[in-house]
């Protein structure tokens, strides 16, 4: 494991911790898209179907458990916890699941390494992760007051993706024959989706003003 | 063999 990969994973973990901090201590999920959170839960469930029969390392195993547990608990909080649920911007979070899930499933059935259930689900999870942030970005754009934790959450998620790109570049040059087209293209698309957000996030940080995305 | 090799990442 190289430093970019580790930094990427830690950034991913921090993004989840920031979100849990907001939900658990402030008891608020204002500005957070439940649709994106449910899509992430689906991403982890479909990607880690092999959690018990493919062992790569303790690190991978524990991280998989953490990602599964945290994503499911975030969904539980937003749906079932009374105070948290009250703060959910339901009317603004209108993105339709089927526009995301169905194309990803079809694409995974057509473009994959092997036409088996686990392999198609794993490929589906990559495509789904690439676009799962869309409901969250739409919600951000509609929210006039983006609070700091929400902004940081999305920023950390984007940073995690950027670090994974660097990890692949590093691996390409250090591991002979390291080529993963499906992972790379899905990852590149995912990172590009954050470009616009990054631009306004850095601008607001530089000018020391509250983050607001143009309509 | 790409499919199995690809899964050492999260």
From TrEMBL, chain A:
GO terms for biological process: protein retention in ER lumen; protein transport; vesicle-mediated transport. InterPro entries: ER_ret_rcpt (IPR000133). It is a multi-pass membrane protein. It holds the Pfam family ER_lumen_recept. It comes from the Eukaryota. It is found in: Endoplasmic reticulum membrane. The chain crosses the membrane at residues 55-77, 97-115, 121-140, 152-170, 182-202. Keywords: Endoplasmic reticulum, ER-Golgi transport, Membrane, Protein transport, Receptor, Signal, Transmembrane, Transmembrane helix, Transport. The keyword Endoplasmic reticulum applies. Residues 1-31 form the signal peptide. GO terms for molecular function: ER retention sequence binding. The keyword GTP-binding does not apply. GO terms for cellular component: cis-Golgi network; endoplasmic reticulum; endoplasmic reticulum membrane. PANTHER family: ER LUMEN PROTEIN RETAINING RECEPTOR. Belongs to the ERD2 family. This is ER lumen protein-retaining receptor. It comes from Cucumis sativus.
């Amino acid at each position: 494991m190289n430093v970019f990969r580790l930094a990427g994973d830690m950034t991913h973990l921090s993004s989840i911790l920031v979100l849990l901090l907001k939900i658990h201590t402030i008891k608020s999920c204002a500005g957070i898209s439940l649709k994106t959170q449910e899509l992430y839960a689906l991403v982890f469930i479909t990607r880690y179907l092999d959690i018990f029969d493919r062992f790569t390392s303790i690190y991978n195993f524990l991280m998989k458990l953490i990602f599964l547990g945290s994503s499911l608990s975030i969904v539980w909080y937003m749906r079932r916890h009374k105070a948290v649920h009250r703060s959910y911007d339901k009317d603004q979070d209108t993105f339709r699941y089927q526009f995301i899930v169905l194309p990803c499933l079809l694409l995974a059935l057509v473009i994959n390494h092997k036409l088996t259930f686990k392999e198609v689900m794993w490929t589906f999870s990559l495509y789904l992760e690439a676009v799962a942030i869309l409901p969250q970005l739409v919600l951000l754009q509609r929210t006039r007051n983006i609070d700091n934790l929400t902004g940081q959450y999305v920023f950390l998620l984007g940073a995690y993706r950027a670090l994974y790109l660097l990890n692949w570049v590093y691996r390409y040059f250090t591991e002979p024959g390291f080529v993963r087209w499906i992972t790379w293209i899905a990852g590149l698309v995912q990172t590009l989706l954050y470009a616009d957000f990054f631009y306004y996030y850095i601008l607001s940080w530089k000018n020391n003003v509250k983050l607001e995305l143009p309509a | 063999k790409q499919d199995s090799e690809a899964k050492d990442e999260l």
